[in-house]
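Hi there,

I know you've been waiting on this one. I reran it after we fixed the sequence typo, so this is the corrected version. Both the input and the resulting structure follow.
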Amino acid sequence: MRAETWRRAGAAIAAAVVTIVVLAGCSAPDSDVDMPAQVDGTFQSDAQAQLQGAVEQAMAASGSSGAIVGVWAPWSGSWVSGLGTQTPGGAAVEADMQFRIGQMTRPMTCDVLYAVVGEGIVALDDPVSDYVSGVADLDDVTLEQLCDSTSGIGSFKTQLNPLLTSNPYRAWNPREVASYGLGQPRLSEPGAAYNESDTGYVLLGLALERATGRSAASLIQQYVSRPLGLSATALPSSVADTPTGGAGSLTGLLAVQGEGGVFDCASPVDVSAMSASIGFTDAGVVSNVQDLRIYVQSLASGTLIPDAMAERRLDGALPLWNGAPTWLNAGGGAVAAGSLVGSYGSIRGYSTAAFADPDTGLTVVVVLNNSASGAGPALWLSWELAALASKLPATEGETVPEAGLPWTAEQQAQSILDGAICPPAS
């Protein structure tokens, strides 16, 4: 995402008491993900307290009443927890609840592309115009450039935000959503640079639907959810609803700005129910923490897609913006941050991030239930938790691996605090 998105964050000291639900014995379904074996058991109590404190700070920073996190260090243990409440003063958050994963949908859409390329249905260098008709100025853009976010096509989010506020339940046609981005000036020539484009991933979804004759939801089910055994991961229909269509959803909140641009952090708006059509193949998928653990480990290790595609995914990764740190690049819908590979994003009500180290197996999944601060708080929290977990001691017979992270936990904690949107508690 663009530099300003990374620099946005919110902070406040939460007055509410955080309720914690730890699923100590909850393990993910078996899969073919190539990662170091995870030792049984949870982290020691002092380590859990340290991780919990980091999450509480991020909840306060983002105005979130609740969060769900998972941290897995194969040499030391794991910690999976629901923290806080669904709404201020509401019911406790459970760790197995589903939520919207936002732009973490993007690598899944690229997984589908790579799979159908492997089957000979499409080619990476096929022009988008071969599959999405009636749209001008796409002859020079390829399917791979949509996946890599190097198409130069603008984004629709800023244009559509006012309409979402006034009518959040509307079911959108993906072509109409894409038109708002296509109407923006080109950000660069195709293939020249990384420019975050939600429009590109919606167009990619449309192209894949046309090429295969199948819906985007069924493609994600066939090429992502089913092979990995992800029972909670799906692209919902366009009918407006909560992430699970009922009970079992993490409530999504939005702190609204009032007079003078001040956020009303005490009474955020419940925005859980909305149509997934606004996100479609850019940000529409729902999942839970255990499914995202498996998925991001697969993403990092490249086990889900053909070998040739896995090697290509990040080989040509580009800086997220001009002047970005050398350790921060993107390609194939994924983000490479130091030794971690994953993704992050924000959609109304939710801020999410998930990263895994393909060599050590260190994995972090985060969701915060207030999107007013954008994607920043969840992203920085995931990196903070990764830095903390990378230093945890090994259990008997195990060895602590070298972390390879180019940041400290303190740096990420400060990033979370630097963009406060709510006044500190007195």
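Quick highlight: The longest strand covers residues 66-73.

Best,
R. S.
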